[in-house]
Amino acid sequence: MAHSRHIEAPRAPTLLPVAVFIALGALLPLLLSSGFHVRLAMLIWIYAILCMGFNLLYGFTGQISLGLPAFYAIGAYGFGMLQTMLGFPPLLAFAGTLAIVALLSLLIGLPLLRLRTHYLAMATLAFMLIQNGVANRWIGFTGGQSGIAVPPLEWAGETLGRTEIYYVVLVMASLTLLLHDFLIRSHIGRAMQAIRDDETAAQALGIRVTRYKLRILVVSGVLAGVAGVCFGITSLRVDPSLSEFHVLVSVLTIVVMGGLGTRFGPIVGSVIVVLLPQFLTSFGAFETVIYGVFILVFLLFMPHGLSGLFERRRWSLRRRSSPQADAQAREMRRSAE
Amino acid sequence: MLMTLSYLLLAGLTNGSVYGLIALSLSVIYSASRVINFAQGEFVMLGAMSAVLFLVTLALPWPVALVAVIVVSVVVALGLDHGIYRPLVRRKAEPLTIMIGTLAGAIVIYGSAFLIWGPEPRFVPPVLSLAPIRLGFLISNAQQLSLIVLFFGFLALTWFILYRTRFGLSVRATGVDPKVALLMGIRSERIVQFTFIYSAAMSGIAGMMIGPLLGAHVSMGILITVKGFMAAILGGLGSPFAAAAGGLAIGMLEALMAGYGTSLYAEPAIFVLILMVLIVRPYGLLGDYEAERR
Amino acid sequence: MPKMKRSAAGLAAILAMTAGVAAAEPLDLVVCAVDDRSGSAADTGIESLNALHMVLDPVNAAGGINGQDIRIVEYDSKTDPQLAANFGTRCAEDDNALLIIGGSPSAVANSLVTVANQNKIPLWILAAASPELTDDAQYQFRFGPKVTQDSIAVADALAAQGIKKVGIINNSVPFGISGAASAIEALEPKGIEITTQQTYDVAATDVSPQIINLMQSEPEVVLVYPYPADGARVIRTIRQMGMTQPVIMPRVGAMKAFRELAADAGNGVMIPSSVDPSREDVEKFFDEYAEKFGELALSPSPAQGHDAGMLLTQVLKDAAVQEKIQAGDLQGARDAIVEATGRLGNFNGLQGQKDVAYNFAAGHHGPPDTGFFVFIEVAGNGKELVGADISKLAK
Amino acid sequence: MTVERNSGPLLRLENVVQKFGGLVAVNNVSFEIRKGEVKGLIGPNGAGKSTTFDLVTGVRPPTSGEIHFNGIRVTRQPAHTRSPMGMARTFQIVRLFRGLSVLENVQMGMHPAFPDGLLPSILRSAERRRQEAESRKRAMKLLDFVGLADRAGERIETLTLGQLRLVDIARALASGPDLLMLDEPAAGLNDAETRNLAEMLALLKKRGMSMLLVEHDIDFIMSACDTVVVMDHGTKIADGTPAEVSRNREVIAAYIGRRAADVTV
Known about the structure:
heterotetramer; A: 337 residues; mainly alpha; two-stranded antiparallel sheet; 16 helices; B: 294 residues; ABC transporter involved in vitamin B12 uptake, BtuC; 3% strand; globular; transmembrane helix (chain A); cell membrane (chain A); Branched-chain amino acid ABC transporter permease (chain A)
């Protein structure tokens, strides 16, 4: 069974689109006239950071965490509180915040990752409710429902302007994007997808499944924390609403619309979810229904989201559809479930 | 002392019955379809809001209103099943993706209810009397007590359907293995449709009965469902009875925590407790049944 | 089709069109109303906006101000502080609004305050009660009382009647938790003992565990911080269990949903109110409101909307403000509005006791500290609200 | 992982027992596989061969008894440790990764060779890139070996069952195993596919690959294996060359009798 002809391996995806996204991001403030647009752009990047974490965890590794908004909130609270209460300089507060969210994710993840699908979803949701409940109740520490102020970023004694803050957020988002892309294009991303698709087989190939899940959970927690810090420096406030249901709904909407398990889904989705309410204001009371219908349409008719439309074209063009192959693939899938 | 304890237990039973009802409806759907229905609480909201419509606006007698509430719930449930669940199952979406679909469904239902009823809280006229009833030294009222009756009634009905009818057998078979069920000539879509309808009716009736106590508000759905979720995973999602027991457990815990501990931190404390239970028993307190099948 | 126009404008904005304002043209009289018109605080946002229209629509119908109509741009913040901040920024930077009115829940108001100070745009907060909102305030003013003023009014009344022991019960949503916290803060310095603080879940149908603890702590007066429906549940259970102590229920007690649900159990519940129903002008206004928008309980929100509208017409007519508006100087106009609000803001509105004026002077920026509250009482099985006799507190 | 090569058998099972509650699924089974040997494991339905396979591949630890691989005791080592040791397996129900391309599936077999962990992968990026390139090349070679190089970039959904099994084998081979364990590789294949598979296994054998083959198809196993272990009711009833085993009375009794029953199902 020797095959003499030599066939090239298909080419691996390049970094070019990542560079394009970052370059677009860097040019954006030059194109936008009002500070409001810059603010929206910042929010897009912040949600993109948050959702890239969720994408790695659920889209690529198959482990859901509905508790991500809690880490988002803790990131913002931590960054603010370390500065105001302990007098940390911003960089140290940033590092400290990341350490806190990493440690918390580890503590939560160690026991909870034994849980599967809906149990994991509900348990992590419980974590979000705990965090939110405490943030609302422990008024002396968290400021209760009105939250706490986050000190504005300064450079050489001057408070940073909005455009400068935008670039700080952009740097964070770019680093996140690079990490996200590195992970999914490397052997680590392959292993993550293997765990998502079939844990038993992944284990048989020597992948330490639990350890991988835990790592990605920590990565997603840390990214949520980074997003929280970015939110803190843009809004200069943090309150319990950062870990309420509507944030969770936004995260889920972003990954569904952008495309679960795609390279750029979180960014594309964030663009939609941040801008959509601004357009929907003109629909008045119909807003909520339209929003819900939007999500449904994407779920039903675009299973890989907007980003998937482009990223998956490669697959569909090559796809050879023989009825027999389809039937067998179906059978295989069914027995794998 | 004894009086306090009895009061706490009665309150636990009442609140637990509400959580248990939601958990029961969630679990009936889950056991046939392996999907958590995020829109379940919206049926409670629909029950309460449409009760206002039928009882106040249209001034129908309550038995007619009850039927009308059931009809509304069933129609919306069919929409959920045909519009979201089936298409997603047919394109082989993951259970969690279907869950996200039901969340979108919840947003649509909530948004539509907002269009119809607006944001104001509504007054739901009580079907039964709110006048005090004495049970020994305990005092309650008929509307509250009816929730306990409703809960155990639905528990019994669910048991009867699942274990005493041929149809129930096929429901259980679908839950165990849809492929085998198909071989037995059972169309699992039918079964899942039934569970959606049955759960929706259950929640709708619950909404009509809870409304006079909790008030009706278009955004009440998610508040109610959260405790139901927690009850279901505490008891064990896979079995309706385990989930219902989880509801009672949360109700009792809450009452005891409020009675003897801190009422301010009762909610977060109970969620912490649930997490700890899950760490020891990943499929819930009574979830052996599901754990073994994996 | 104004809807179409607005979405087209939004589209243009998002596509980063430059909106160059010619220097010589006068500014449009744009006012943003960012408030909750859906979600749990929707009633406050809707009622205040209605009242705002009641004041401004006739002004516009009569030719506006110097021939210019006042345009209200409305955004629904949905109890979402982040969304509110986005809309606030949009008002400041895209809509070129002269000022922002709104922000009823504290979290929403808080994020609007940040926006106002970043963008140097005046913000008139309506109902939000969080005390620190107007600490060291520059651009923000508030029409509603702080929750602490609310609590201080209650504490003063209780202290005056020689009450020594108060039990508190609140629901577990932020409103209940922070309301109770501020009450404790106001009561303790007066030497009033808090016998217990009980918290219950809004979704709990039976609150008797909390009521039992409340009963056993033997308070002289009970303070309740609920939402309407659970407030009714609490008061019913309190009376069912044979507690006869007076009950004070800030704000919520006046709401229709509460009074309907509580029915006879609600009789005698006392409410510290910033709106005095015995004032003639108040009664007339609420009759007028009911005619336009349907029956409404005595609620501070329409009064706040009304007062904001009154002050707004005064401020826009002000010479210093008009000068900047005519010159097309947006930032100048905003600063002038801040200044004029402080200067003109000592006026009698529909809130407070008769002849008690707002105090928007520098360093205060809100309702007066005393004389702003009256006590009212639920009567007639929930059908009426009447003036309360607080001496009944000390039985 | 450095493994001290010994001269003993590659795989050794000693008195392995597996109980599920009161049921004894595997009862005191012992056998060996030498280097280069292709061992078949057969038996009627419910004989315990799949359970035995699970014990060897580490899906669960046995109730008692010992398993040694390359002289190392692996009895209670979890499944993920087996591949780095040189044990690779395929699955009866094909368990390829749906989200990955054919090539990437094969690359997964080489996973343990990559740097472990996030930071090492980022820090040792030059080494990782070289490894990645190498792994792609090797995976292509393996795909070429099983005759699927032209499908490398495709989703696995587009392949037939026979092709999927070949990818599974390529993936197992990718780890460079000392022992290849195949779980019913011919199940569900048509005649042509089965012949193709047999040819490939013969080629692997010629290259010196040791294999453990669990199979239902007696003809397939008799032609492919050096030696065969026969199980019935959880017990080993024969162990020898195909010729020896097929003459064994106990085997014939157990097998033929049951096989008739199998057919009627």
